[in-house]
Structures are given as C-alpha cells and as structure tokens.
Amino acid sequence: MFGLIKLWRRKKVMAREFPHAWEDVLNQNVALFPRLSPDDREELRRHILVFLDEKHFEGCGGLEMSDEIRVTIAGNACLLQLHRKPDYFPELVTILVYPESFVVKHKDVDEHGFEMDEVMENAGESWDGGNVIIAWHSAKHGALDPRDGLNVVLHEFAHQLDSTHGPGDGAPPMPRAQAREWARVFQAEYDKLCEEVDADRETVLDDYATTNPAEFFAVAVETFFEKPTQMLEHHPELYAQLKGYFQQDPANWKRDASG
After folding, report:
1. Which of 91, 133, 134, 202 shows its CA 20 to 30 Å from the CA of 158?
2. Is residue 259 part of a domain?
3. Helix 176-198 with 236-246: angle, nearest 10 deg
C-alpha cells in the first residue's frame, strides 16, 4: 500500500508545471542539460520535480539555501536517473550544502597499527546513513565545465547508487547476468588504472579513482558523462558497461547548446 501511495504522489508531482526560473537555472548552471535531446530534457524536468519534493536541503556554514542551489544539484543528480526505473536515491534524506569546501576528520590507521586523526578538506561526501554533503562552489564550478571530468554532484550521487543496498563497493545493484560482466570489466580496468598511475602515466580517469573500487566507480561516472569520447576511445569496455547500466550514450550527445 505504501508503495502505491508513493507512486501516486510521484505521478501528481510529475504533472506539475516546471517553473520558468528553474529552467533558466538548468540552462545557465548545468552545462550537460542543453546537450540532451528534447525528450530527455523533459524526462529530467519530471525527475527534478520529484527529487525536490522528496529530498530536504539544508544550508550549512552560513549558506542561505536558494532555488539556484537546489535545482543545480538536482539537475546533475537526476541525470543518473534518466532512462532507468527511477528510485530517487532511496537511502538519501538530506543534502547538506556548504558554501566552500569543508573540513572533516577521519580515523586512519598507519602501517604499524597506530590510529590517527586525519584532517581533510572535502568538496563532497556521501554517507550510507542518508546524507550527502556538497560544497556549493565546487558543485557550481563542476556543473559549468562539462569537459574537465570533475563533477562533485555526479560523483557523490554515484556513491548513493553504489550504496543503495549496503556499503559501496563499486558494484551498484543490477541483474545478476549483467553483474558478472560488470565485475570482470571493472576489476580489469581498476587494476590497469592502478598500474598506469603507479607508472606515472597520463590517464583519462582522475587518479583519485585508484583509492578503492567505490571511488573508481564514482570517478568513472564523472568521466562517462563529462569526458565520454575520451573514455570510449581509451576504455571502450568500461564505457560499454556504464552505457548499459545508465541506458545513456553521452559520447553521441550533441556537443553544443544549440537546438
């Protein structure tokens, strides 16, 4: 019954008029939006309406929340919902937004087993417990430059997909047959990237992807959407797996904002 009520509510929300001011935000702040086909742009609008209806945004560090912030983040996050049965990141409750990068403390254990507090400056974090943290400056900058392969919103929401049914491990939920090929390709690509980074070779994927399989997946998602032609050329099997999972082919999106 609860599921039917949720579907009914989402259908009503999707039927709402998409505000003109929000359309302006997408065109101005989300550089990937104009590259989508008209049908995909309309689908994205419907997903954004649901996402903003269901998720709570909270400004932190003195940031005053605005529709520009909410729509920019939602516009990027919902790119990951296109052409798929949308679940709208079911574990996610709140998006915490800081004006700039934020400082976090992590426990780290060195090679001798000593535990230390490590202080890091982050642009984003995704928590299994229902929160995503985003630095607005980084989110806006990443959304405006569609060719640098760096998009903190795509990155953190890729983690949300990965951790839908448990701790993220680079293998988001998918049919078993697809998962077997996914595991083979991703392990081979991860190992290859680690070798290339160790050899100090230039790589299409950011070297942060070598941190662990979960970060490899998140960086691969950023690269798939922002540097698709380079990924297709240098990592065709990896591109094919992401294309199959997202049911999208960004290498064939139009490369300008016309039309």
Report:
1. 202
2. no
3. 140
Residues 6+ apart with CB under 8 A from 254: 35
Does residue 189 have a pLDDT over 50? yes
Q: What is the pLDDT of residues 124-140, one digit of tens each?
A: 778 776 799 999 999 99
Closest CA to 156 of 176, 136, 175, 173: 136
Strands 131-135 and 94-98: parallel
| 123 or 243, higher pLDDT | 243
Domain count across the chain: 1
Q: Which two tokens stand for residue 74?
A: 């939602």
Residue 75 and residue 149 in contact, taking contact as beta carbons nearer than 8 Å: no
Mean pLDDT of the chain: 90
Tell me how far apart the alpha carbons of residues 188 and 125 are, in angstroms, rounded to a whole number.
26
pLDDT in tens, 192-233: 999 999 999 999 999 999 999 999 999 999 999 999 999 999
User: How is residue 104 annotated by DSSP?
Assistant: E
pLDDT at 104: 62
Which two structure tokens, joined as six digits, stand for 93?
Answer: 């409750």
3-state SS class at 200: coil
Measured between alpha carbons, how far is 150 from 155 in angstroms, rounded to an integer?
8
In a domain, 172, yes or no: yes
